[in-house]
Design brief:
Elements (H helix, E strand, L loop, with lengths): L12 E6 L20 E2 L3 E2 L1 H11 L3 E6 L4 H10 L10 E6 L13 H6 L2 H7 L3 E6 L3 E2 L3 H11 L3 E9 L7 E5 L5 E6 L13 E12 H12 L8 H12 L2 E5 H4 L11 E2 L4 H10 L27 E3 L1 E2 L2 E2 L1 E3 L2 E2 L4 E3 L2 E3 L2 E2 L4 E2 L4 E7 L4 E2 L4 E7 L4 E2 L4 E2 L3 H7 L1 E2 L5 E3 L1 H7 L2
InterPro entries: ADP-Glc_PPase, ADP_Glu_pyroP_CS, GlgC_bac, GlmU/GlgC-like_hexapep, NTP_transferase_dom, Nucleotide-diphossugar_trans, Trimer_LpxA-like_sf
EC number: 2.7.7.27
Organism: Sphingomonas rubra
């Protein structure tokens, strides 16, 4: 594939983020919002990572396809991602499922979510399409993947991560040859194929794909005319190209962005309550695996104008303090003890309360004397005075959603039931 020598490929690419999924394994956390809109890290949303990667990679044209309970996601995107300007050859489109192709048709699958918007994409004329999932936490330079795509002459390049073979049963797994050409694609196999020369490791798809735009459109039209297709990249488009074209694997470790303090490639699917809690709590480590303080690769988001966090009272038993914790703006820790926890914007923790390994989403109120351990508190929850969570597993399981690993999800409807 010819391209202007020396020019970054990202400037001729469009990032297209698939953000329509519910994320049902997060249970009540996605009752009112799509998974990409779930808060993460104190002030960001999950989708900010894919969008920030695109921006930091040099991509200035972006589209986000939304579907399930998209209001909070759309509102976030309008507030936080409205700085891309058409006069600078930049664009940012929010593309809800709006029955543009058929009066009865929502997005049937991930491929259909691109197919239905071909005319909008064509109006911008991108040479390449970078198809992204909107619900993972990672830092990646897509320019490196674009370069490999062009150099290899592939029809599609699929980003993959190395995982222990026994853990790959929940992924789409790539079977590759010695040159990393994909020779087979297996969705959630019972016996995942190993990487050549490494029998204990498999290559799992990250749901990140690079295509030449014209080629992609041809494949989407072919797939749309195929009876019985589920209109999905992972189930239909990629397996077809593995058999009938050239599909190349791109190893995430080659393009993962690391700061000096990050020793390993970091990628997380925070699609369960346990995984979500762990990824947030990991940020409190002295040297976390994910560095949010790397100015060379910032995570962009909607930044509210807030006053600083505040800590008040200094009496034994009533000391406003936080240790090994992240505390966002507009939080007031008033005589409360915070340990290895994450307080999102606008949290109030009142006197004599205690939070230990707690992930607290925005605008929560922690009542006096409450003791909360190993919890995820959904946004806007008012914790009653004296509530104890984390001491009695059996009691917790009757009142809240408690995981097998002992993490309790607490929402306002659950709290309201306690008062009945």
């Amino acid at each position: 594939m010819d391209h202007r020598k020396g020019q970054p490929l990202a400037r001729d690419a469009m990032a297209y983020v698939l953000a329509g999924g519910r994320g049902s394994r997060l249970y009540e956390m996605t009752d009112t919002r799509a998974k990409p809109a779930v808060y993460f890290g104190g002030k960001s949303r999950i989708i900010d990572f894919a969008l920030s990667n695109a921006l930091n990679s040099g991509i200035r044209r972006m589209g986000v396809a939304t579907q399930y309970k998209a209001h909070s996601l759309i509102r976030h995107l309008q507030r936080g991602w409205n700085f891309l300007r058409p006069e600078r050859n930049e664009s940012f489109d929010i593309l809800p499922a709006s029955q543009r192709v058929s009066e009865t048709q929502w997005y049937e699958g991930t491929a259909d979510a691109v197919f239905q918007n071909i005319d909008i994409i064509e109006s911008y004329g991108p040479e390449f399409m970078v198809i992204l999932a909107g619900d993972h936490i990672y830092k990646m330079d897509y320019e490196i993947m674009l370069q490999q795509h062009c150099d290899s002459g592939a029809d599609v390049t699929v980003a993959c991560i190395e995982v222990p073979r026994i853990e790959a049963t929940g992924f789409g797994v790539m079977h590759v040859d010695e040159s990393d050409r994909i020779v087979d694609f297996v969705e959630k196999p019972a016996d995942p194929p190993a990487i050549p020369g490494n029998p204990e490791v498999a290559l799992a798809s990250l749901g990140i794909y690079v295509f030449a735009t014209k080629f992609l459109f041809g494949e989407l039209r072919r797939d749309a005319a195929t009876p019985g297709s589920s209109r999905d990249f992972g189930k239909d488009i990629i397996p077809y190209l593995v058999k009938h074209g050239k599909a190349q694997a791109h190893r995430f470790s080659d393009s993962c962005v690391r700061s000096d303090g990050e020793s390993q490639s970091y990628w997380r699917d925070v699609g369960t309550i346990d995984a979500y809690w762990e990824a947030n709590i990991d940020l409190t480590d002295v040297l976390p695996q994910l560095d949010l303080y790397d100015h060379r690769w910032p995570i962009w988001t909607y930044s509210e104008v807030t006053p600083p966090a505040k800590f008040v009272h200094d009496i034994d038993g009533r000391r406003g303090s936080a240790v090994a914790s992240l505390v966002a703006g507009n939080c007031i820790v008033s005589g409360a003890s915070i340990n290895r926890s994450l307080l999102s914007t606008g949290t109030r923790a009142h006197s004599f309360s205690m939070l230990d390994e707690a992930v607290v989403l925005p605008n929560c109120e922690i009542g006096r004397g409450a003791r909360l351990r190993k919890v995820v508190i959904d946004a806007g929850v008012n914790i009653p005075n004296g509530l104890v969570v984390g001491d009695d597993p059996e009691l917790d399981a009757t009142r809240f959603r408690r995981t097998d690993k002992g993490v309790c999800l607490v929402t306002q409807p659950m709290i309201d039931k306690l008062a009945l």
